[in-house]
Amino acid sequence: MTAASDVARFQGPGPMSVRAFRWWLVNYRRTWRGSIFSSVLNPVMFLGAMGLGLGSLVDRHGTAHLGGLSYLAFLAPGLMAASAMQTAVGESMFPVFSAVKWQQTYQAAAATPLRPGDIYRGHLLFTTMRLGMNMVIFLAVMAAFGVVRSPWMLVGVPVAVLTGLAFAAPLDAFAVTRKRDAQPFNAIFRFGMIPLFLFSGTFFPVSQLPGWIRPLAYATPLWHGVALCRSLSTGTPDLIGALGNVGYLVALAGLGLLAGHIAYRRRLYV
Amino acid sequence: MLGKVADVPDPEVLIRATGLTKRFGSLTAVDGIDFEVRAGEAFGFLGPNGAGKSSTMRMIGCVSPPSAGTLTILGFDPVADGPVIRARLGVVPQEDTLDVELTVRENLLIYGRYFGLSRAVIADRTARLLDFVQLSERADDQVEPLSGGMKRRLTIARSLINEPDILLLDEPTTGLDPQARHVVWDRLFRLKQQGVTLILTTHYMDEAEQLCDRLVVMDGGKIAAEGSPRELIDTYSTREVLELRFGPAEHNHAAEVVAGAKADRIEVLADRILLYVADGDAALARVRELGLEPLASLVRRSTLEDVFLRLTGRRLEDG
Asked: What is the CATH number for B55?
């Protein structure tokens, strides 16, 4: 046996993380219909109830604070970024905990040529796919509501995916460290995700918040995603600001990726 | 970097450990053990729970970096070349890690893909492996409702999908009913006949006796003895064992008097007294001459359980 043939035996075609990604794909085959149904229903309900319903009241009082946009046109791109966050959170915490604790599918994969980093990136690939699917659907629903007013909004899809990954990468890293229970996840939902959802400029401009709390809103990753998607939807992205937003999100995703590689290795190589 | 860390002088030796140690904080789970596993043999780690068997297995499985000592597997270093080694291992973990929501066939497909095998190769092997573990009829059933024995056999089939050079089995029949255990043993025995190198941990002495060509007895992270089951019994025990059972009132008295029965060794357990002798029937006659009349007596061959008792002063199940 030579080293070269040994290497060939485990490398095979394509990156190793794709092999881990396939596990998620095979499992998703059983649930994709339901997931797509809710991916369509969610934006339809929110844009209908908040955008059209509540929006009709808002628009009557003038839309100067919304930059002259109708409330629906203001809300939709922000909601897109927020929905990327929700998708990412949903694909991160409990699925990771299940794979490492309840079903031990991570451990099964770790006994094969896959390394912890491959298993982690494989999961992130699947999250990326789900984000991509949901954001395309969201964009289509926005178009149906007549609020895609600029071709720039197509860039909103990858931007929203990036927003999601800025959440998924570090949340995977956190979830994989949990040894006993999934209790903190509920706290993250309640005290992390929901406040971000409500106060990151999705439903009203952050400028409406009390001055002292505004810096907090600007520091959250979701605000950067919301700001990006909104500026793209109006077709007048401010390049410097947009670069700052993207930089923030890339940095967060990158740090999460680093933490994830360390956390997965520590958990799977005991 | 990828590459052989050492030329294996003896091509037969697939695994070599020297001073292998695993620490978890202040706990030393594996305390400087030495062993070699040769191609084609069935090698066992026998010991109670907590002896360090599973920790050793995880180090061999390249999912647990050793704290000290050296470990060479198939000529490679498990820390640097884990993927290369794992590509040639089959692993049956202590707890089944099957995808219970998927079908039997999908489990093998997913796992085979982890090894980079093509669908065609996996389909071909799946048919043969399911036949081998007697699960062909369940191929398209979900895993969840399968019995414990069936799940175990599926885990074994899964571990063979990459046609491994070495098969690692961590407590392969723990939790199975006697009938299911015998089916698993039968399959493992066939693999051994086919020349697959088996490494297993067990705290069942009958399992070790049935399957292992050679084994090490582990206790407290150390190796207490090494040899074939026969050698270990010959070295550390007598040909026969006389088991005596007395009533609770008599037990302590009998334990003192029985010393006069000229046994090589006597073990007084909570419920029984064991006399290690060459001839059990003759020893029973001597016990009666001493004026003792046990409630029950049994003459049997020595087993690895006796070896373990001799080496550690404890019974295997005590853990």
From this structure: 3.40.50.300
The total domain count for chain B is 2
Closest CB to A107 among B93, B106, B116: B93
Cβ of A56: how many Cβ atoms within 10 Å?
12
CATH code assigned at B298:
3.30.70.100
How many angstroms separate the CA atoms of B159 and B93, rounded?
9
User: Which has the closest alpha carbon to B232: B309, B133, B117?
Assistant: B309
Residue A2: predicted pLDDT: 41
pTM: 0.90
CB count in 10 Å sphere of residue A32: 14
Q: How far is the C-alpha of B271 from the C-alpha of B247, rounded, in Å?
A: 9
Which two three-digit tokens encode residue A18? 């794709």
Backbone Cα Rg of chain A = 20
The ipTM of this complex is 0.87
CB contact under 8 A, A108 and B4: no
> B210 with B228, same domain?
yes
Are B84 and A113 a contacting pair at CB < 8 A?
yes
Q: Nearest residue on chain B to A105, judged by CA atoms?
A: B97
Q: How many CA atoms lie within 13 A of A231 on its CB side?
A: 17
Which residue out of A1, A6, A29 would a mutagenesis test of the B interface target, given it has the greatest number of B Cβ atoms within 10 Å?
A6
A-chain residues within 8 Å CB-CB of B3? 3
Domain that holds residue B274: 237-313
Residue A223 and residue A201 in contact, taking contact as beta carbons nearer than 8 Å? yes
Decide if B66 contacts B22 (C-beta within 8 A): yes
Which residues of chain A make contact with B83, given a CB cutoff of 8 A?
A: 10, 16, 113-115
Within this chain, do residues B124 and B209 fall inside the same structural domain, yes or no? yes
Domain ranges of chain A: 14-268
Model pLDDT for residues A142-175, shown as the tens digit of each residue: 999 999 988 999 999 999 999 999 999 999 999 9
Chain A residue numbers touching B95 (CB-CB < 8 A) = 104
Which residues have C-beta within 8 Å of that of residue B36, sequence separation ≥ 6? B13, B15, B16, B17
Interstrand relation of B197-202 and B296-301 (parallel, antiparallel or unpaired): unpaired
Q: Does the distance separating the beta carbons of B89 and A107 come in below 8 Å?
A: no
- Residue B67 belongs to a domain: yes
Across the A/B interface, how many CB contacts are shorter than 8 Å?
Answer: 91
For residue A87, give the nearest of A140, A126, A46, A33 by alpha carbon.
A126
Question: Per residue in A24-79, pLDDT tens?
Answer: 999 999 889 999 999 999 999 999 998 899 998 888 887 787 888 899 999 999 99
| Inter-residue contact A249 to A169 (CB < 8 Å) | no
Please count the helices (runs of H) and the strands (runs of E) in chain A.
13, 0
Could B114 and A115 be called an inter-chain contact, meaning their C-beta atoms sit closer than 8 Å? no
Helix (H, G, I), strand (E, B) or coil at B12: coil
Query: Cβ contacts (< 8 Å) between B92 and chain A: which residues?
Result: none
**What's the gap in Å between the CA of A110 and the closest CA on chain B?**
7
- Residues of B near A (CB-CB distance < 8 A)? 2-4, 24, 58, 61, 63-65, 74-76, 82-84, 86-89, 91, 93, 95, 97-102, 106, 109-111, 113-117, 162
* Rounded distance between C-alpha atoms, residue A178 and residue A192, angstroms: 18
